[in-house]
Each structure stands twice: as C-alpha cells, then as structure tokens.
C-alpha cells in the first residue's frame, strides 16, 4: 500500500509528508470491464474489488456470470496474458458461452488494453499521493474513485479511444 508519489505544490519551506506503513503489504485486486454498446452513444464500466486477495479463475468466472446477466447481446473480451485468463476453468466457461468472443493480446502490450488506461487514470489522478494506513481505507477510496469514473461517460469513451486498437467510437 505504498503511495504512488506524484509532484505536488507546498508553501516554500514546508516539505509535504506522506506517512504510510512500510511493513503493511496489503492490496486490493480488481477486475474491470469497459464497454461500448452497439449504438455507441455511451461507454460503461463495471468492476469488482477483492481486498487482500488474488484474481484467480474462479473469481473471473464469477465476474463473467454477473457480466452476462448485466450486459445484453454479444460481448468482445480483450484480455491480456494473465494466468487466470488462460486457466482451464476460465477457458472451459468461455467455450460454453456463445455470446462471448475473445481476443487475446500479445504477452506484454499494456498500451493495447483499454482497462490499463482506467487503472492509470485512477492511480495517477484521484489516488495520486494517497497513502492509506489500512486496507479498509484503500478499498473504500478505490471503490469511490472507480464509481466516480463510472459516472463520466466522456472519460470512459476517451479511455477506449486512447487505445490503438481499432475501436471506432462515433
């Protein structure tokens, strides 16, 4: 939970301080999707947070179940090479879902993944210089930040548009 440090302003002679616990190695893992409906007038974002847990194939399948209930029509998933994405449970589940079409990105190509822009936008924007002292505060702030981004369709569209993939938005 070490803070991501960014430059900041302070009165001359008053060096800003960020206090954090260096021995507390807690984290919040997250799954997120950015979407464009067929009519393309709004982008949308769904996410789930997993405090102090890793993302595994069971969590991915559970998330995809919820996503299939929430999103109507076909879905194109653009995935990186996360081990849980390639796990047997995940691939078997996707094989049974005719609505899901899968595109797998090259081994290391974060610039192609629109969701990476979501994470960067949250970490380098509202959460920059944020130094939580406990896991609950980190989880709550992460949830609040992502919900704020969810409510900004123009920002969601810009995250999708920023990726060099051939996603054409009108």
Molecular structure report:
With 170 residues, the protein is an alpha+beta fold. The chain has 2 domains: 46-108, no CATH class; 109-164, no CATH class. Helices cover 37% and strands 15% of the residues. It contains 6 helices and 4 strands. It has helices at residues 57-70, 83-86, 88-95, 114-124, 135-150, 153-162, and strands at 28-35, 44-51, 75-79, 100-104. A two-stranded antiparallel ribbon has the order 1-2. Strands 3-4 form a two-stranded parallel sheet. Helix 4 crosses helix 6. The longest helix has 16 residues, at 135-150. The model has no long low-confidence stretch (mean pLDDT 83).
Task: Output the radius of gyration.
Answer: 18 Å
Low-confidence stretches: none
Biggest sheet overview = 2 strands, antiparallel
Total beta-strand segments? 4
Strand order of the largest sheet: 1-2
Number of helices: 6
Proportion in helices: 25-40%
Distance from first to last alpha carbon: 39 Å
What is the number of domains?
Answer: 2
Oligomer: single chain
**SS content category:** alpha+beta
Question: Strand-residue fraction?
Answer: 15-25%
* Helix-strand topology string: EEHEHHEHHH
């Amino acid at each position: 939970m070490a803070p991501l440090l960014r430059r900041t302003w302070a009165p001359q002679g008053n060096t800003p301080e960020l206090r954090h616990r260096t021995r507390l190695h807690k984290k919040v893992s997250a799954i997120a999707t950015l979407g464009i409906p067929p009519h393309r007038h709004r982008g949308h974002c769904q996410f789930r947070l997993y405090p102090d847990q890793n993302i595994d194939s069971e969590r991915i399948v559970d998330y995809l179940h919820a996503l299939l209930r929430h999103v109507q029509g076909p879905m194109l998933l653009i995935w990186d090479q996360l081990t849980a994405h390639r796990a047997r449970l995940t691939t078997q589940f996707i094989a049974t879902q005719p609505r899901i079409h899968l595109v797998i990105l090259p081994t290391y190509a974060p610039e192609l993944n629109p969701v990476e822009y979501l994470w960067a936008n949250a970490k380098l924007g509202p959460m920059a210089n944020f130094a939580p002292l406990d896991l609950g505060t980190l989880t709550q702030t992460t949830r609040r930040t992502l919900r704020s981004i969810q409510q900004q369709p123009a920002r969601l569209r810009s995250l999708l548009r920023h990726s060099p993939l051939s996603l054409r938005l009108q």
